[in-house]
Amino acid sequence: MPPQRVYALPRQRSLLLPAVINPFTHDLKLTKAEKIKCFLLGIILVPLRGIFLLLVLMVMWPVSVMITFRQSLKGAVEPMTGWRRVMTFLGRLYFFGMGFRVVVKGKQASSVKAPILAVAPHSSFFDAIVCIEAGLPSTVSRSESLEAPVFGRFLRCVQPVLVSRKDPDSRRNTILEIERRAKSGGHWPQVLIFPEGTCTNRSCLITFKQGAFVPGVPVQPVLIKYPNKARLLLLTLCQLYTAVEVEFLPPQIPTEMEKKCPIKFAQSVRAVMAESLGLPVTDHTYEDCRLMIAAGELTLPMEAGLVEFTKISRKLELKWDSVKKELESFANIACSCKGGRITIEEFASFLKLPISPALQELFSLFDRNGDGTIDFREYVIGVTVLCRPANNEEVIQTAFKLFDIDEDNCITQEEFSSLLRSALGVCDLDVHSLFKEIDTDGSGHITYGLVLFILPKPIQWGKKVFSQPPIVQVLPLKKMREACNFHHRYTSTMRDKMRKKIQKITL
Q1: What does the pLDDT read at residue 119?
Q2: Helix or strand run (H / E) with residue 223
Q3: CA dist 334 to 349, 354, 364, 369, Å?
Q4: CB atoms < 10 A from the CB of 291, how many?
Q5: Cβ burial, residue 330 (10 Å; 0-12/13-18/19+)
Q6: Phi then psi dihedrals of residue 321, to 5 deg
Q7: Cα(199)–Cα(25) distance, rounded to whole angstroms?
């Protein structure tokens, strides 16, 4: 009876499916009673509110023109004063006309104590109400938005930090401008940022962008909640009122480590906000939205493009363009399948092979959740881990990251054992003596540098390896041969000793 294949620990823990599969689409279902209510109220409320909003805009526009008359479109040099209370009052009047009832919790910190406000979750343009309640702080906006009629003038009133798509250095300049304002000692108003970088359906908090956390100054988290479920403009206008809760949490002061690593600071702030909201966190980001659009253009379901890009790119060191190319390859196989998933029949047809135990074993390497299909996320992970690596150090580095479960840049004996079991495809390996030989200082851990330092040159594997189908043998052994095929700096005596140890285990 052939030995049972044991999958690596990362299959269960390192690249798990997210708590929320699709955080970007809304699924609003109204009952018949709610539809009738919206229709009846809409007949009365929509015209009245439309007239009221038009009157407010007729007052706001000339005021904003006077405020920004001499302001350059290239960005503000000095903060303007003496007008914020007027525009804040008009802004509140505007949202009141739309039927918003706002409840503010907590206390907003001053621009000295918390120069940056991080607002989440971001779900619609209604979230601009936070800007009104916060006293019109500066925001981050595209430079093209300033040229929009009417609303472009309103936006210029808050003196936003501008992002230009035409400027290749725009991202760096934007971060420098945020940092300049944040470290002005209260000279500039606070900078309000939606760190998620895109809109979601409020079911979770996705990856926070680093822009708000690069300056390394205290950040005040701001939560925005909509107890009402109607979020579309027309449905909102048809409600008697729309409840909104804006909650200011205590400012989060970065540690010395978080000042040096904005990613950790962003994760720390996100964790605090998620706990207060009672929501899970995922590693989705705006790049997932781009992949969703690309999937739709390739005649796949848009949800097929969701891969949790932040986690995939970090763990497997993939760029967006690389994932996009894999999506095109995936579409060639899955475009004829319903739901954008590959079954074993399509898998066999694409490879032009019959369905056999060997092919089923290969299919199972891709099918991480065991549901009998391969989605795009599983396809990317499978292709990257099993097929892509071309140079040997890249293979070792990728494998080390995948098996370093707790991400402390070291692997324990258990993690080392899992790595070898996965690579060789068997479960009965005793690596205690080998690990003890490598772990010369007895710390119970081996580092990536030590792994590179010790592993021998290519091992001449015996012909009689395991009584498994040939295709199953080739994949793991090929990976192990590639992983071991690089120049080493160890003495020949120790190299031969290590080779004998590994050969004793594998033969």
Answers
A1: 96
A2: strand 219-225
A3: 11, 18, 17, 18
A4: 22
A5: buried
A6: -60, -35
A7: 9
Q: How far is it, in rounded angstroms, from Cα 457 to Cα 490?
A: 10
Query: pLDDT per residue over 403-457, tens digit each?
Result: 666 667 788 887 777 666 555 444 555 677 777 777 777 788 887 777 666 554 3
Indicate the average pLDDT of the chain.
76
pLDDT at 32: 84
d(CA 402, CA 396): 10
CB 112 within 8 A of CB 186: yes
Does the structure show a pLDDT above 80 at 460?
no
User: Token pair for residue 248?
Assistant: 């200011």
The residue to which tokens 């707790």 are assigned: 406
Residues in the chain: 507
Can you list the domains of the chain with their CATH numbers?
Answer: 32-277 (3.40.1130), 285-387 (1.10.238.10), 392-506 (1.10.238.10)
Identify the CA nearest to 191 among candidates 153, 124, 141, 244: 141
The pTM (predicted TM-score) of the whole model is: 0.70
Nearest CA among 505, 459, 361 for reference residue 2: 361
Backbone angles phi, psi at 223, to 5 degrees: -100, 140
Identity of residue 262: P
Predicted pLDDT of residue 3: 42
**Helix (H) / strand (E) containing 343:** strand 342-343
Q: pLDDT tens digit string along 263-295?
A: 999 999 999 999 999 999 988 888 888 888 888
Helix or strand holding residue 102 (H, E):
strand 100-105
The DSSP-derived string for 144-195 is GGGGSTTHHHHHHTT-PEEE-SS-TTHHHHHHHHHHHHHTSTTSSPPEEE-T
